[in-house]
Specification:
The complex is a heterodimer of chains A (581) and B (284). Chain A is built from 23 helices and 14 strands. With 581 residues, chain A is α/β, with parallel strands linked by helices. Among the domains of chain A are: 2-234, no CATH class; 337-426 and 497-577, Rossmann fold (3-Layer(aba) Sandwich). In chain A, the strands form four sheets. In chain A, strands 9-11-12-6-13-14 form a six-stranded mixed sheet, with helices on both faces. The termini of chain B are far apart. Chain B has one domain (2-282): ABC transporter involved in vitamin B12 uptake, BtuC (Orthogonal Bundle). Chain B has eleven helices and two strands. In chain B, strand 1 (126-129) and strand 2 (132-135) form a beta hairpin. The longest helix of chain B is centred in the N-terminal third of the chain and has 31 residues, at 2-32. Chain B has 284 residues and is an all-alpha fold. Chain B has helices at residues 2-32, 39-55, 60-81, 90-112, 136-158, 160-170, 172-177, 182-204, 218-229, 236-254, 257-274; strands at residues 126-129, 132-135. Chain B has a two-stranded antiparallel ribbon. The chains are: A alpha/beta (581), B mainly alpha (284). The interface between A and B is large, with 40 and 41 residues.
């Protein structure tokens, strides 16, 4: 945060000095391009951080610009107040679109198309709705920025606009340097994992879209005061393409990238356009395509990589031992979990067919069964990753049927997936911290909270014993498969873990490693009283770890008991050896 | 009564235009999972082909097949050089074709300048039928557009090539493992999608101004058709065009073009709320 503030202040000093030194025309250019940079940063926040590909970032920008022009034309003394109103309008526009669009979990394609079509439609509406928008010519003669009836001189006004645009960029920069920045990156790169950690990802995305809209709206008002007019082209294809181009070329997921992109491309355009307009526009199109295909991260991140700086430069959290021992089942009525007559089919195939299963005392339970018996699907249903078509699911006595997986997570259900699900771009420590913050997270809370993460002893033990504790700064995506498995177990334990679900934790391990894993899990269970459900195939591991084994076949429970009982069961033997009973 | 007939004919004409413009978009998306934001520019280039044909003194009717050929070649070249590299990455395709559309518009501007060009109506005048006068060329347009749409859809659903392409849609890896040359099939699908856009451009050329930005006007409508009609079904283009044309004509009749645009947009949003959309292009 201090770095972001310092960078913002330094940039402001530099911009003021340059504006004074260059004066007049150049200062005006700089202020306009900084406004564009603020717009690009707002898109970057929405797209580069939260992963929402918005091709309609001009909607909050343009609507706020029109509103600001209207207010200032009606009451010139209000131009500073109009900036605040514009930010609020931008936020409201984005919130409306976000709520209507994002709750259905649309794909990037649908979001991109809808926002683009919305923006192009806004252009047509602005052209036709002459009474309000002034039609094709738009609204002209908007006074320059001022306050309390005084209008600033040209250069002074430009400097004020430059500084305000930088302030908006700095606010976003400070925001993403808080834990919310890491959480948004997590949602962008692995939404399923984040939801299983207790993050209401839809709410976080709508929040990010709204904040991005506020910044875009603020930039829209600055734009109007800088140029003195607004016309329907503010929503048009040309500017829509340009914003995406600045952000993309500069580098998504950084703040410096889009600023550099916007300034460099605009100054190049302004310089080259005089002599070379048509070829320059063609060149921007070519640059766009080439960057997308060859350098999708953008120029600034690529240069950083060349200079040997990795994502590790991001602020790292401090992992602290948690005071209390939260692990273990909370006080509850009824079973730890129960699934009653659950059914789930895909087409005609009934994967889970009237399955009933419960756990009354904290135990180490293994689920076994042939492929297609419904083991992983059952785990999905127990942690809300998949819904079921009929039946009831209760976790610690609470009815959870049909709820999203983040609510299961907040009730204490933690899940390790079959193939490790991590936020690859973030460090080991940040992955663990994100897991620890997940239990009670609101976007605003994450924007304010410190980088300290209280880690329960169970998770710390895993990090210690597996050696991950010495590599907290490593990028999670660079770990070996085995280390990824353990990191994911540590993440599952770092949150509000009252019931641990593990899907094939020993896949890819040697016999020695899997026996060590069994000892580790038994130890966890014994010391913290943690209920654990494990899906496994490896009988050596199961014999070493399980209190009790449940055999699934054809989507229902076939047998249940301790390891010896189950192994002696003739039906189980028949299923595994293929003999018909 | 006559007013109603006229509105019906207008609606039919909108339907035919929307259908033939959206057809290529639907093919490329439905079969390859590619969102082509440069599709409007393919239509624009088709219109310029008909301008060039006219400027050289040839008949307008030559421009329809010629536009198909030119756009097939151009589409194939774009598939080979660009689309092939970014397959199966929906977000990247959107961005790349976004950039491609800038390039195509700018090349058109370099070659033809920003001036509005026009092609004279090859069959001027109006025909009296069903008790109303209606421009003859629009009857022709409706006929050709419907024929192109039906023929293309039949080719994709009934022919051996169609079977191959649908096998790729169902399971690309399996198709490849069964010896289907997915590369060539994709090339053809993208080329045919572009060719139908070229035909659409040549057909609408006599009706409006031809300029580098002309393609942009077709993009929102075509995407609305594809969204409403469904991403995975080729015949959805017909259904989508029918619904969008109906809504637009109806709303224009009672209000104006802006509300028609808003109404179709609302329709698309509503459809998306009720249907889960698969981006892979394969049926969900």
């Amino acid at each position: 945060m201090r770095r972001a503030l310092a960078a913002g202040a330094l940039a402001a000093v530099a911009v003021v000095a340059m504006s004074v030194a260059l004066g007049g025309f150049r200062a005006g250019q700089l202020s306009l391009f900084l406004v564009f940079a603020a717009l690009a940063v707002s898109l970057d926040f929405v797209w580069g951080y939260a992963g929402i590909l918005s091709l309609g970032q001009l909607l909050p920008f343009g609507i706020a610009a029109y509103a600001s022009a209207k207010i200032t034309l009606a009451a010139p003394s209000l131009s500073v107040g109009a900036l605040i109103v514009a930010a609020l309008i931008g936020a409201a526009v984005a919130a409306g679109i976000g709520v209507a669009m994002l709750r259905r979990r649309p794909t990037a394609v649908v979001v991109g198309l809808l926002t683009l079509v919305l923006s192009l439609t806004a252009e047509q509406i602005a052209e036709q709705w002459r009474d309000i928008t002034g039609g094709f010519n738009g609204l002209t003669g908007v006074p320059r920025i001022g306050a309390f009836g005084t209008e600033l001189s040209d250069t002074a006004g430009d400097i004020v606009i430059s500084v305000l645009a930088l302030a908006a960029i700095t606010v976003v920069g400070v925001g993403v340097s808080r834990p919310i920045g890491a959480v948004l990156i997590g949602i962008r790169s692995n939404e399923r994992r984040m939801e299983a950690l207790g993050y209401d990802t839809v709410r976080c995305k709508i929040w990010a879209f709204t904040v991005g809209g506020a910044v875009a709206g603020f930039a829209g008002a600055l734009y109007v005061h800088r140029t003195g007019f607004v016309s329907p082209q503010i929503f048009g294809f040309t500017l829509a393409t340009s914003v995406v181009l600045w952000t993309l070329v500069g580098g998504r997921g950084t703040i410096v990238g889009p600023v550099v992109g916007a300034l460099a491309i605009n100054f190049a355009s302004a310089t080259l356009a005089d002599v070379w307009l048509q070829y320059w526009t063609l060149a921007t199109g070519v640059i766009f395509v080439v960057v997308v295909v060859v350098m999708p991260d953008g120029v600034v991140p690529s240069l950083q990589r060349l200079a040997g700086r990795s994502a590790g430069r991001r602020r790292q959290p401090t992992l602290l031992p948690a005071d209390a021992e939260p692990s273990g089942a909370p006080p509850h009525d009824g079973a730890i979990f129960e699934a009653i007559d659950v059914r789930k089919s895909f087409g005609f195939f009934r994967l889970i067919d009237g399955l009933t299963l419960r756990m009354d005392e904290p135990e180490l339970r293994c689920l076994v069964g042939p492929n297609g018996a419904g083991k992983s699907t059952l785990l999905d249903i127990l942690c809300g990753q998949q819904g079921c078509q009929a039946g009831t699911v209760r976790i610690f006595g609470q009815e959870c049927t049909g709820k999203p997986s983040w609510e299961f997570a907040r009730n204490g259900v933690s899940r390790k997936f079959q193939s490790p699900q991590l936020v690859d771009d973030l460090s080991v420590a940040t992955n663990v911290a994100i897991a620890a913050w997940g239990a009670d997270s609101s976007p605003w809370g994450l924007a304010r909270r410190s980088w300290n993460a209280p880690i329960p002893p169970a998770a710390s033990e895993i990090l210690e014993r597996t050696g991950l504790g010495e590599r907290l700064g490593a990028r999670a995506g660079d770990l070996s498969h085995g280390d990824k498995q353990w990191l994911e177990v540590a993440m599952a334990l770092a949150g509000n873990c009252r019931l641990l679900l593990l899907d094939e934790p020993t896949a890819g391990m040697t016999v020695a490693e899997s026996l060590e894993a069994a000892a580790l899990l038994r130890d966890l269970h014994a010391r913290h009283g943690l209920p654990i459900v494990i899906v496994e195939h490896d009988m050596t591991f199961i014999r070493a770890v399980a209190d009790r084994v449940t055999v699934l076949a054809r989507g229902a429970v076939l047998a249940d008991g301790d390891v010896a009982e189950v192994e002696a069961n003739p039906q189980v033997r028949a299923i595994y050896s293929g003999v018909d009973t | 009564m006559d007013a109603l007939t006229l509105e019906l004919l207008n609606g039919l004409s909108t339907f035919a235009t929307l259908g033939v413009v959206a057809l290529g978009l639907g093919i490329v998306f439905g079969l390859m999972g590619i969102i082509n934001l440069a599709h409007g520019e393919f239509v624009m280039i088709g219109a310029y082909v008909s301008y060039v044909v006219h400027a050289n003194g040839f008949s307008h009717w030559l421009s329809v097949p010629l536009a198909a050929v030119v756009l097939f070649v151009l589409g194939g070249a774009i598939e080979l050089t660009l689309i092939r590299r970014i397959h199966r990455q929906p977000e990247v395709t959107i961005l790349a074709t976004f950039g491609l559309s800038v390039c195509l518009r700018q090349v058109a501007e370099l070659v033809f300048t920003k001036d509005f060009r026009g092609v004279p109506n090859p069959v001027p005048g109006a025909t009296r039928a069903f008790g109303v006068l209606f421009p003859t060329y629009r009857y022709v347009l409706i006929g050709i557009a419907v024929a192109v749409v039906v023929a293309t859809l039949l080719a994709f659903t009934k022919s051996r090539f169609g079977l191959t392409v649908r096998a790729i849609v169902a399971d690309r890896d399996l198709a490849e493992a069964s010896g289907i040359r997915t590369g060539i099939a994709n090339l053809c699908a993208f080329g045919i999608g572009a060719a139908t856009a070229g035909i659409a451009g040549a057909l609408v050329a006599p009706l409006g101004a031809i300029e580098p930005q002309a393609g942009l006007a077709y993009l929102p409508g075509a995407f609305l058709v594809v969204i409403v009609g469904g991403f995975n079904k080729l015949w959805g283009v017909v259904v989508g065009a029918l619904i969008v044309a109906g809504v637009q004509t109806g709303v224009i009749h009672f209000y104006d073009a802006v509300w028609a645009q808003i109404a179709s947009l609302g329709l698309a949003v509503a459809v998306l709320q009720f249907r889960r959309v698969s981006v892979e292009g394969a049926s969900a």
